[in-house]
Specification:
Layout (H helix, E strand, L loop, with lengths): L3 E3 L2 H9 L5 E6 L4 H17 L4 E6 L4 H6 L7 E6 L2 E7 L4 H9 L3
Parallel strand pairs: 1-3, 2-3
Antiparallel strand pairs: 2-4, 4-5
Length: 107
């Protein structure tokens, strides 16, 4: 079973902003080719860093409130939250090594 939890706009506040540990929010779309390349690395990250890091994913089209809140301009997009605040952002395809670097300092 995947450690990545798929959430929607109505769950965003509870699952991301009110979470005590760091949260990586992964924004994706089914029509996005680079998202298909990044997804296995997101799953790997969630498995590797559980329980120190929570990983959630949101499909962009049905979740416009979260997309606007996080100022997502393209997919795939990553937002790293700590204490309910965005502490790091990344947009575009990302490899496993860069993904590891992206979260290392926060957890």
């Amino acid at each position: 079973m995947s450690q990545v939890r798929e959430i929607n706009d109505s769950q965003f506040k509870n699952e991301v902003l009110e979470e005590n540990k760091p949260v990586l929010a992964y924004f994706w779309a089914p029509w996005c080719g680079p998202c298909r390349l990044v997804s296995p690395s997101i799953n790997w990250l969630a498995e590797t860093y559980a329980p120190r890091l929570k990983v959630v994913k949101l499909e962009v089209d049905p979740n416009p409130e979260s997309v606007a809140f996080c100022r997502v301009e393209g997919v795939p997009a990553l937002r790293l939250f700590k204490g309910g605040q965005i502490i790091k952002s990344y947009e575009g395809a990302i490899g496993r090594d860069k993904l590891k670097e992206f979260v290392e300092g926060a957890i």
